[in-house]
Amino acid sequence: MRPRGFDKPIYMLPFDHRASFQKQMFGWTGSITQEQTAQIAATKRVIYDGFKTAITLGVPKDRAGILVDEQFGADILHDAVKRQYLTACSAEKSGQDEFDFEFGDEFDRHIEAFHPTFCKVLVRYNPEGDRAPNARQSGRLKRLSDYLQTERRSMYMFELLVPPLQSQLERFHGDKATYDTDLRPKLMVQAIQELQDANVEPDIWKIEGLDRREDCERVVAAARRGGRDKVGCIVLGRGEDDSKVCRWLETAASVSGFIGFAVGRTVFWDPLIALLNKAISPEDAVNQIANRYLRFAELFEQRALAAA
Question: Is residue 2 a part of any domain in this protein?
Fold first, then answer.
């Protein structure tokens, strides 16, 4: 059994989006053709080129990582592993409310095809929600946890989303922003504890942005309870605008235990849309992505140093 946890700085550029890429960026629904698959893969290559450019501009290579899916990014993953970047590959079916494996019982074979630094799952888990799907998810997630503890070459990255129940929104008169600040942090802590009690043991928790420092501290305390001292937390961007993401990064970076971020759509979405609309060149898109990613890395690093 390998030691649990990852507590080194890590700045992830996630672009493992699948269903959302097809529908929201290209307007495609249902099954897609080989030509359409190749078009999405080429678009993701632009993001990857931006990532590599950002490293030449100053993002520390030992802290830089990508999160990409096998469906559209297999070649990117293989290349990134060869270049010794930090890598993560998604294991969940895309666009599902309840977690299940993308490749069913063969999930292990697909992890071993790449041996990424991290195997990532995205999970929607509200502890006040229906117990049956929560229990089903926990069972599948424990299975992956057990496998990764013995597989040794890939660690466990857990993206926790706590979407509001209708009854929870009604407490705040339908105000999602108030739910995010007043209830979601407590539910996140509860969800982490329930999953740990179900023997789900991530090395990194990927956490929705938090506005208050004390909420970040409570999340870290939950993630590291019971001797899990090296487990790290990173903050995700949720596709929000620059100002909100910057605020989340500054807040998280001031708290020991938050080791970095995973910000994707805020970095690449607008440049890619402009590229697809032929408003900018591929080179311009690469440079815009690189500079956005670099800016977030510098912001987190500076704030973390100031807080140390």
Answer: no
pTM summary value: 0.95
For residue 253, tell me if it sits in a domain.
yes
Comparing C-alpha atoms, which of 10, 299, 264 is closest to residue 157? 10
Asked if the structure places residue 5 within a domain, the reply is no
Q: Which domain holds residue 239?
A: 10-307
Terminal-residue alpha carbon distance, the chain:
32
Task: Mention every residue, 6+ apart, whose C-beta is less than 8 A from residue 272.
Answer: 25, 43, 46, 47, 285
**Half-sphere exposure in the Cβ direction for 144 (13 Å, CA):** 37
SS3 108: helix
- Cα-flanking dihedrals φ and ψ of residue 267, to 5°? -85, -45
Domain membership of residue 4 (yes or no) is no
Convert 35-47 to b/e letters by CB count within 10 Å (16 or more is b): eeeebbeebbbbb
> Has residue 1 got a pLDDT over 80?
no
pLDDT tens-digit series, residues 63-104: 999 999 999 999 999 999 999 999 999 999 988 899 999 999
